Amino acid sequence: xxxxxxxxxxxxxxxxxxxxxxxxxxxxxxxxxxxxxxxxxxxxxxxxxxxxxxxxxxxxxxxxxxxxxxxxxxxxxxxxxxxxxxxxxxxxxxxxxxxxxxxxxxxxxxxxxxxxxxxxxxxxxxxxxxxxxxxxxxxxxxxxxxxxxxxxxxxxxxxxxxxxxxxxxxxxxxxxxxxxxxxxxxxxxxxxxxxxxxxxxxxxxxxxxxxxxxxxxxxxxxxxxxxxxxxxxxxxxxxxxxxxxxxxxxxxxxxxxxxxxxxxxxxxxxxxxxxxxxxxxxxxxxxxxxxxxxxxxxxxxxxxxxxxxxxxxxxxxxxxxxxxxxxxxxxxxxxxxxxxxxxxxxxxxxxxxxxxxxxxxxxxxxxxxxxxxxxxxxxxxxx
Length: 383
Description:
Blueprint: H1 2-20, E1 31-37, H2 44-59, E2 64-69, H3 77-85, E3 91-95, H4 96-102, H5 118-138, E4 141-156, H6 163-167, E5 171-174, H7 178-186, E6 191-194, H8 199-205, E7 210-213, H9 215-221, E8 229-232, E9 236-245, H10 246-249, H11 257-288, E10 292-295, H12 298-309, H13 312-316, H14 333-340
Parallel strand pairs: 1-2, 1-3, 5-6, 8-10
Antiparallel strand pairs: 3-9, 4-7, 4-8, 4-9
């Protein structure tokens, strides 16, 4: 009996000692990163992001976990940026539209006809990367990787060959980007501001009859079915990046950050490689399903360049708020030769005549990142 009483008296003391012992504190809860993307569930983009999250969990021993909201369920890119700012989500895979909503300097990579190849884009992006990432960080965002979704082309319900053809059309532009709307209007076009999630119903009702996007997005969204004409002109690269709130990044233990960043950089490299190649395959697939390609020869390319050059100073200005000297100007032939290295690599087959000489232009008013499937998407609040 006395032994039992003694045992009972030890229990509180043993519990207290265990609580005070080194390493006995409860493990900190995992850092949950909620990431929004317009990429459709099951797409290459979504798959690579999901695999990145698996590597985060593995390298951190479960201390960092990624939850992906794909298919535009959180709304358009400006909606995702707003949700990050209020803390509903902590990360997003964005195109230049969403990134420019954070810092306009990113628009420097989106100037149409500035680049003739991915090598040129990669070279300029690497040169500007420190400055661009600094600008985003000053706004509270850390860049995890850079990517792109291919070359932007014009699509229409009727053939679009020259700038005059496009001026007769009702062109989708991104809602909320008033500077882009003003630029298109100043150049004589008819922009219609909408969310990317509204492109399909807008085509169905006739609210718009033209848009610009990449072949892969036109295919995955099925927009090309209602706009079966594509101009073979590389208007601009659709650039993007995956960003995370700096406040969330700082919650990740310092010793874990290198592995997290390494997995993100690897995902960015895979995205650039796979998405670029997939865009060429997308053109072939759309042609099999009724898409008509309209070549852009030297004269047509020159006409588009003249139209772009007419508003080039105004187009370049929004991207120069940080340092005007850092914004790329027209690439010279020698610069182009140095970046090309005599080979284009996967997905670099050039359709139509390549732009030559001076290549400035106005920012794309419709970088259309809506990779989601057809129809408007209901916006959800992340759990």
